[in-house]
Structure formats: structure tokens, C-alpha cells
Design the sequence.
């Protein structure tokens, strides 16, 4: 699945014109200073905010086009987001957090739990299922967020500063983990970062804002 | 280099500042003083009855002022009225809370802006309607309709004990009083629920969307667990009002001094309506018993409201 965005995002002085597309298997890194609209791109593709103008398409299906009032609701977009501040649900344990997306897509509870366990094992957290997010380190929380996004098998993976919420030691571990995970991910990935090291480690190409 | 000596910092308040602080502190203290005076007055006037009847004042179901001499002594017990208060209040909450949840979620997450403001204003207005108006409306409009609903409930569910009736009379029952109270507690419960739901973290709702969750999914996963304790607090504030309601209940409920859990039966009562009914023609001793009943109601309502305030404030702190 490919994703293409041609249009403007943001408002007023933050308005920005964009034109890019990402194909399956590609990891597009979007870099730029704070306030340049990197996270806004992620939120726009996920459907949390709408395009100012232009068109957002996925495999030639329009997700957002203000001029024709086409707008696909977030739950109908085949994407998953790892947010900069992770946004794990604090009242749910790790396995419930990871299985949330599957349950939201109507997967039966037993199957959701099994698939979530597999996803947690994949990110090295097989024994953390019953823990609450507040009992985890920054690096562990980051892995949970990654597992939570990957388990729904999205066609588009949106990573918003995936290494910003972790300490230096966890950062190195996750920087090792992410390329391995992304190499086996079949869909398109958009990685927002301000760290050129992340771009080198993970991206197949980059776009500067 | 030597350490400089510590010096005392003295803040001198201006006269206007001192007066202002005094005025607002007195205002704040005044409510506590009034509360203590009310409790003290009720205790002072009702103490003799508490001494005479002891714990049986709370457990007894008989209310008889007697003839004033030893041949027919007075008997005062408020168990039937106390339980009646609780039964009607619980019915009110069972009906009102689901509506309050639905209305508050609609206003906060679904209603367009042009509907939200007028609906909120109307809800606030509903809270300001005097009890007697509710009572008259309940008596004239609600009761005839609700008696029909009660009859249907009885015919479908009379295998459940609480829906049985000793005689086929369906008006002036705890069920009807509970429905009327539900309308009366709906605004306060909705208002608290709406405030708590509005504080739910938007970023976590977005996180639910970002994983494929629907709007309802986000509300169920994030908003409702977040607002749970606040909602309980709001319901308890409603319970406080329902327990203390007087005139509206008096107009739609038969005052019968018998513990009654059969909610469709035409018998019940609550402490507040007992006081309102008997106050005018009470003997001096019965008046003391009414004061004692008032103190019990006062303490129960105070406890419920204190618990509600604590729960709501705890939910705000965790927000």
C-alpha cells in the first residue's frame, strides 16, 4: 500500500505545503526543527486533524480531500500510530493496551490476546503482560507502544519521534530493534524525527521540512 | 567568607487587605457555624426522644403520639421512613444515572455547538424548578401515566418479590416517587458527569483513534473509566437531594408506617415528608421526635454529600 499527500497542512504561520508519497516497504523519514509541522503530518494521515487543502490518498483511495468534502474516519484508515508521548492507557495493563486495536477492529478476545502476546515477545516484553504502564521504564513503554501499533498489522505505520521519550541506554536498544522490526514490515512507514541518527539507522529516504 | 545571618521577613498587610481577609474568612466560617448550629439545635430539641427510645428510634416502625398519659404512651420509630427514603432515592438513581451518562456524553462529545449551549442552559434551568412544581406535575401528569407503567411491570414481573403488590392499587407508590425524584436529581448528576467527562485526556482519545478505535470505542476506553469516580460522586450528590426531598414526595407517595420494599405498592414515605406531614398538628413531645428524625436525616444527607464531595475532588485530582 502506498500513501501520498499533496496539499497543505496547519493554519496561519504554521501552514505548510507538502508533496510526497511512500510505497510499501519504504521508510520515509521526515525531519525538521521543532514547530515545523512534523507531528501535524502524522496526525493528518491518521485522521486526527484534517488537511487544510489538497488531497491525501492511500492506494488511490482518497482519505481526505477538503474541496470535495471527502474524509475517511480514523477507524477506517488502515494505519497505526506510535505517538511521541506514547499515550498508553494508564488504567489498562500491557496486554490490554496492546490488544486494544485488535479488539477495536472486532477481533475475538482469545485471538487478540494470542496475537498481542506474540507482538510483545517480538519486542522483548513477553513477561510484562500483566504490568501497568506506570510500572515500566521509558524504554519498556516505548516497546509496548510499538507492539500496540504493529499488532493491528497496519498498511501504514506512523512513528512520531519514536526515540524521544527514552533514556540513552534504551535509545540504543530500541534503535537496534526498530530497523529489524521495520525490515519485516510490509507496509509503508513514515518516521518523524529531528535526529539524523534515526534517519541513518532506519530510513530508506528522507524529506526535510 | 562568613555566612550571612538569617533575617526575619515580616510582611505587613495593608488595612484594606486585612479587612478583606477578615470578611471572606468570616463568610467561609459562617457556613460551618450555621451547619453546627442546625445540628446543635436539632440535637438539643430531639435529645429527650433519643434518651427515651434509644436505638429503637431508628429501628422502630410505629409513629404514634399517644394520648399524653401512661394509658396510651407515645411510640416513635423512623425505620419505615428511613428505609422509604433509601428505597425512593435508589429508584431515582437507577433511573437517573444511565440518563445522566447518556446526556452528558451526548453534550460533551456528540452534540454540535449550537445545540450544546441551549441544552446545557435548559438542564441548569431544570435544576432551578421548585420542588412543589415537580410535585404538582408529578401528581397531575406523571402519576396517572406511571401507575399504568407500574401495572404493566407488575403483570410482567410479579414473580420478582419487589414487583408484587398486596392490592391492585398502583398510584402513590415508591416507584412513582422514585421516577419523580429521578427527574429532580438528573440535572445535578448530569452536570457533575459532564464536567468530569470533559476533563478526560484528549490525547488518549486520539490514541484510541490512532489504533483504529471508533468514537464510541474512545469514549468507552478512555472517557468512561476516567470519569467513573466523578460519576459516582455526582450520583451521590443526587442521592443527597433525593434523600432530603420533601414536598414532591409527599404529593405522590402514600405515607404508611410500615417497612415496604415492594416498590409498586401504594405505601411508603420518607423522613422529610413525615416531618412535613406531622409538623402542623404535632404535640410538643411529637415535635421533639420530629426534630430527632430531622437530625437523623441531616446526618445521613451530610454524610452522603461529604462522601460525594470527596469522591468528586479525588477524581479531579487524578485528572
Sequence:
Amino acid at each position: 500500500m502506498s500513501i501520498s499527500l499533496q496539499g497543505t497542512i496547519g493554519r496561519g504561520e504554521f501552514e505548510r505545503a507538502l508533496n510526497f508519497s511512500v510505497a510499501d516497504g519504504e521508510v520515509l523519514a521526515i525531519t525538521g526543527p521543532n514547530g515545523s509541522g512534523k507531528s501535524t503530518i502524522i496526525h493528518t494521515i491518521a485522521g486526527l486533524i484534517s488537511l487544510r487543502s489538497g488531497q491525501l490518498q492511500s492506494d488511490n483511495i482518497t482519505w481526505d480531500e477538503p474541496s470535495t468534502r471527502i474524509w475517511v474516519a480514523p477507524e477506517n484508515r488502515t494505519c497505526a500510530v506510535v505517538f511521541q508521548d506514547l499515550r498508553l492507557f494508564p488504567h489498562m495493563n500491557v496486554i490490554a493496551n496492546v490488544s486494544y486495536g485488535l479488539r477495536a477492529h472486532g477481533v475475538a478476545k482469545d485471538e487478540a490476546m494470542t496475537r498481542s502476546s506474540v507482538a510483545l515477545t517480538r519486542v522483548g516484553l513477553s513477561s510484562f503482560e500483566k504490568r501497568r504502564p506506570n510500572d515500566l521504564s521509558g524504554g519498556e513503554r516505548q516497546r509496548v507502544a510499538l507492539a500496540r501499533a504493529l499488532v493491528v498489522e497496519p498498511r501504514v505505520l506512523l512513528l512520531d519521534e519514536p526515540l524521544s521519550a527514552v533514556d540513552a541506554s534504551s535509545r540504543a536498544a530500541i534503535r537496534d530493534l526498530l530497523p529489524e522490526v521495520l525490515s519485516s514490515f510490509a507496509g509503508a512507514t513514515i518516521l518523524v524525527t529531528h535526529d539524523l541518527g534515526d534517519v541513518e539507522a532506519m530510513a530508506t529516504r528522507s524529506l526535510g521540512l | 567568607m562568613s555566612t550571612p545571618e538569617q533575617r526575619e521577613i515580616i510582611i505587613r498587610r495593608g488595612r484594606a487587605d486585612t479587612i478583606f481577609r477578615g470578611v471572606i474568612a468570616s463568610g467561609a466560617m459562617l457556613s460551618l457555624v450555621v451547619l453546627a448550629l442546625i445540628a446543635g439545635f436539632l440535637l438539643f430539641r430531639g435529645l429527650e426522644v433519643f434518651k427515651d427510645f434509644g436505638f429503637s428510634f431508628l429501628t422502630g416502625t410505629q409513629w404514634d403520639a399517644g394520648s399524653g398519659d401512661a394509658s396510651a404512651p407515645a411510640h416513635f420509630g423512623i425505620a419505615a421512613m428511613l428505609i422509604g427514603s433509601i428505597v425512593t432515592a435508589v429508584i431515582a438513581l437507577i433511573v437517573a444515572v444511565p440518563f445522566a451518562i447518556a446526556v452528558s456524553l451526548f453534550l460533551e462529545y456528540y452534540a454540535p455547538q449550537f445545540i450544546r449551549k441551549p441544552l446545557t442552559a435548559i438542564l441548569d434551568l431544570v435544576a432551578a424548578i421548585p420542588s412543589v412544581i415537580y410535585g404538582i406535575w408529578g401528581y397531575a401528569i406523571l402519576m396517572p401515566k406511571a401507575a399504568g407503567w407500574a401495572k404493566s411491570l407488575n403483570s410482567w414481573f410479579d414473580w420478582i418479590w419487589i414487583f408484587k403488590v398486596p392490592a391492585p392499587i398502583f398510584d402513590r407508590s415508591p416507584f412513582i416517587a422514585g421516577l419523580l425524584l429521578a427527574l429532580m436529581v438528573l440535572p445535578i448528576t448530569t452536570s457533575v458527569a459532564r464536567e468530569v467527562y470533559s476533563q478526560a485526556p484528549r490525547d488518549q482519545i486520539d490514541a484510541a483513534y490512532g489504533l483504529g478505535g471508533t468514537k464510541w470505542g474512545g469514549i468507552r476506553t478512555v472517557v468512561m473509566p476516567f470519569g467513573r469516580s466523578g460519576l459516582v460522586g455526582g450520583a451521590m450528590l443526587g442521592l443527597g437531594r433525593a434523600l432530603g426531598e420533601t414536598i414532591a414526595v409527599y404529593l405522590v407517595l402514600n405515607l404508611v408506617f410500615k417497612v415496604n420494599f415492594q416498590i409498586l405498592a401504594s405505601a411508603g414515605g420518607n423522613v422529610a415528608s413525615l416531618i412535613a406531614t406531622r409538623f402542623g398538628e404535632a404535640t410538643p413531645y411529637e415535635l421533639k421526635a420530629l426534630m430527632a428524625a430531622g437530625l437523623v436525616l441531616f446526618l445521613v444527607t451530610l454524610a452522603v454529600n461529604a462522601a460525594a464531595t470527596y469522591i468528586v475532588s479525588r477524581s479531579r485530582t487524578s485528572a
User: Anything to note?
Assistant: Residues 15-64 of chain B form one domain. The two ends of chain B are 49 Å apart (CA to CA). The first strand of chain B starts at residue 63 and ends at 64. The interface with chain A takes residues 203-204, 206-214, 217, 221-222, 225-226 of chain B (CB under 8 Å).
